[in-house]
Amino acid sequence: MKDEFEKLFEPEYGEVAPEVMIPPTQNIDYENAKVWRAKTLPDSIAEIHGRMKKCNCYEKLMEVPVINTYMVKNDKTIIPLRIYYPVQEGRFPVLLFYHGGGFSMNNIDVYDYQCRYMSRFGQAVVVACEYRLMPEYRFPIGLEDCYATLEWAVKHVGRYKGDSSKIVVCGDSSGGNFAAAITLMARDRKGPKISKQILIYPLVILQPKKRYQSEKRYGKGYFLEYNSQNNPFKIYFRPEEEKKINNPYCSPLLEKDLTGLPKTLILAAECDPLLDQGLMYAKRLKDAGIDVEYHMYKGMIHGFFNYDYGKSFECLETICSVLK
């Protein structure tokens, strides 16, 4: 008899939950990326604020202490950071959060409430990184910004009540790509020890040889318009480096050796073109002997983590339970 994990690999590809209002797809203007973000981000942040302000947890979230700071990389680049920490005294787990947005959009303000929630109810120090975005900054610049944040956190979170021996990396979508890649980098470089990785509907392969079934089913009309065979991440690389699309630090699913990685929590949306690749990564990690916990939220679309659906909070609560 198949166990519950194995049964996940026979998805039914269901329908979107009745409460889900599918938002229009965001298509960034790469030729005028800064202008596009300047027009789009304020509206996104205002919409999220309007929704979250109606939630019962809003007042508690706004009590979370927040510090805006920065780190200076070895090349003198300044990377803004936002740190959330519990009001109680003590030492708490540290969660490094990398936001999603196709490597090219969003910022830490878009994910402010999620970070507040994970800090408040997960009793954790959350460090959100404002990594540099493409197309202005291409692979591996944003990824290396995120890795440098990990190294910075290990050295400095003690002043914010963080326990540097309990480091968790987390991200959604392309941020999940970064989180997965960083666990590989930390292992390969003999860098900071990561105790857990939390991947929220992660992008773990940029250009598979063929479209997966979930991509065919949900690749159009379900918020994330996605066809992997059209090379949507070509612009992520400089022209002379396009062959790096199969580098495991870009596509962790292609890493041949997944041993030695931390415990993993994968949180997926059923009606998401990335569903199958996340399932495949979960299976490969499990086959490599990694402790994997997997949750699929039925009827949810890519991006539901940023919303105020019941399952959005279920997802957050699952993260908090792992942190605690």
Question: Would you kindly provide a brief summary of this structure?
Answer:
With 324 residues, this protein is α/β, with parallel strands linked by helices.
Could you list some keywords that capture this structure?
alpha/beta; 9 helices; 324 residues
Oligomer: single chain
- In what range is the share of β-strand residues? 15-25%
The geometry reads as globular
The major beta sheet can be summarized as:
8 strands, mixed
Give me the strand/helix succession. HHHEEEHEHEHEHEHEH
- Percent in helix: 25-40%
> Strands of the largest sheet, in order across it?
1-2-4-3-5-6-7-8
Distance between the termini: 33 Å
The tally of beta strands, per DSSP, is 8
Output the radius of gyration.
18 Å
- Give the low-confidence spans: none
Q: How many helical elements?
A: 9
Structural class: alpha/beta
What would your notes on this structure say?
An eight-stranded mixed β-sheet has the order 1-2-4-3-5-6-7-8, with helices on both faces. Strand 3 (92-98), helix 4 (112-122) and strand 4 form a beta-alpha-beta unit. The chain is an alpha/beta fold. Helix content is 32%, strand content 19%. It is built from nine helices and eight strands.
